[in-house]
Amino acid sequence: MKRVFSGWVLALWATLAAGVAIAQPGVAEEAVRRLESFVTQTSAAQGRFRQEVLDPQGRAVQRSEGRFVYERPSRFRWEVTAPAQQLVVSDGKTVQVWDADLEQVVVTPLTQALSGSPVAILADAQALHREFAPEGGEVEGERWAVRLRARSAEAGIVRVVVEGEGEQLRRMRIEDHFGQTSEIVFTEFRRMWSVSPEEFAFTPPPGTKVLENRPGRR
């Protein structure tokens, strides 16, 4: 379960009824336009989430909840507060993945960590097309949903479904290569003008093992 957390949160964000049908091209294009609008008009936000991980048979194997905050283009904090403490935080240069139970933190360059990741969708509207290929979308009043397929298998992600309402992010559903699905519901979402830099800083507790995940390192 540890891999599930770190793998998709570099990865992030879930839940739309299984199988969003591919709509007529005009509707799909409008859904993508609304997602792009959300990304470009939301420079910073914070809130809370509930997450559930389902196995290939659709059985819940992990449930968690916590808080998040992000500031485009590259700073974010995704913090699980229950049932155990876990954290993914980026200061704009590196990403730290901390696990309290394992007493370790993995440090990865930002560009390496975000390649092919759902986080890229929120960080950069251009990444939506660079990292993902839109498969379809739906629009109903203020509600919209976009289904995206990852262009690369590097991040272990197959498909991401993003759902919103107006300029609010509501849910995300992330399917991985192991057949597992991470469903995230944003129970609270609030736009912000700016975020304190302290939110994106993290100093591991004393005794924490630090693992450097950098190209060329062994």
Structure description:
It is built from five helices and twelve strands. It is globular. The protein has helices spanning 2-9, 25-41, 110-114, 119-123, 125-131, and strands at residues 44-54, 60-71, 75-82, 86-91, 94-99, 104-109, 132-140, 143-150, 157-165, 168-176, 181-191, 209-212. Strands 7-8-9-10-11-1-2-3-4-5-6-12 form a twelve-stranded mixed sheet. The protein is of the alpha+beta class and 218 residues long. The protein has a single domain, classed as Lipoprotein localisation LolA/LolB/LppX (outer membrane lipoprotein receptor (LolB), chain A).
Short characterization:
The protein is of the alpha+beta class and 218 residues long. The protein is built from five helices and twelve strands. The protein has one domain (2-201): outer membrane lipoprotein receptor (LolB), chain A, CATH 2.50.20.10.
